[in-house]
Write a structure and sequence with these properties.
The protein is an alpha/beta fold. The chain is 27% helix and 34% strand.
Length: 265
């Protein structure tokens, strides 16, 4: 994640992350895993978090380096990796670092940025810095695969999104806590092309105590040709472009914008 995502400051986010996102109907794990299997070399995953995509990738026999800025997310990932068979552990290398300025000292056949960490990069300078770092770390004709959401215009102008909206079902954690999540848009920033987002966690403890925790962060939104231009000026050519993880074509109703690009130059 980037330094503006909130993941690096708030330990409770890492506590809830796996339980919350495991219930989402996403098909991105098998999508990214497919490219790792085809890469013919090591994979670099930016924003690896708790290992949601990284661990299945390594378990499938692929060598992978995961980079994340949050020490809390990486600690959760390390705890999960430590429970894996040694032959899988050896395929995983974890690095704490900023996705706009990193140097792992290696070259990779594939770089991935799953589940939208790129949208935590608010400025064009940050976005270019990230893509430049990826370009430097890819071997000749290495691939970059990442997703951003297809911008839904009502979320940019409709103030009803300022109200809290429930997300998923209440979850009981192993320690007995019950967590319910809501989300809201806190502010629009049309000139800078981002929204302030709040993810709100209502926590009920076994002893009856209640807590309301807020994960607040800015979220950049993109349009198709903006990303295409960014990739072009940073030394990439687009090979494939999808609207969902089933590799369906992009159209007005697509929930995602998924780019598969190749390093040039």
């Amino acid at each position: 994640m980037s330094k503006r995502s909130g993941y690096e400051d708030l330990e409770f986010v890492s506590d809830f992350y796996d339980s919350m996102y495991n219930q989402l109907p996403r098909r991105d794990i098998e999508f990214f895993l497919g490219y790792a299997k085809q890469a013919g070399g090591k994979t670099l995953e930016l924003g690896c978090g708790t290992g949601r995509v990284l661990i299945p990738t390594a378990s499938a026999g692929c060598e992978i380096t995961g980079l994340d800025f949050s020490p809390y997310m990486l600690q959760k990932c390390r705890e999960k990796v430590a429970k894996l068979p040694q032959k899988i552990q050896k395929k995983i290398h974890l690095v704490q670092g900023d996705m706009t300025n990193f140097d792992t000292g290696e070259k990779y056949a594939l770089a991935t940025i799953p589940f939208r960490p790129f949208q935590h990069l608010i400025t064009v300078a940050e976005q270019k810095a990230c893509l430049d770092c990826v370009h430097e770390h890819l071997r000749e004709k290495g691939k970059l695969v990442f997703d951003v959401f297809h911008t839904y215009l009502p979320r940019l102008i409709d103030t009803r999104y300022f109200m809290e909206m429930a997300v998923g079902e209440s979850l009981q954690l192993p320690d007995g806590r019950v967590v319910k999540r809501t989300e809201r848009t806190a502010a629009f920033h049309h000139a800078e092309q981002y929204n302030d987002i709040e993810l709100i966690f209502y926590v009920n403890y076994p002893d009856g105590r209640k807590e309301r925790l807020v994960h607040a962060f800015p979220m950049r939104y993109f349009y198709r040709y903006e990303i295409e231009h960014l990739l072009s000026i940073c030394g990439f050519k687009i090979l494939e472009f999808y609207g969902n993880f089933d590799k369906s074509g992009f159209n007005d109703e697509s929930p995602e914008m998924i780019f598969v690009a190749e390093k040039t130059g």
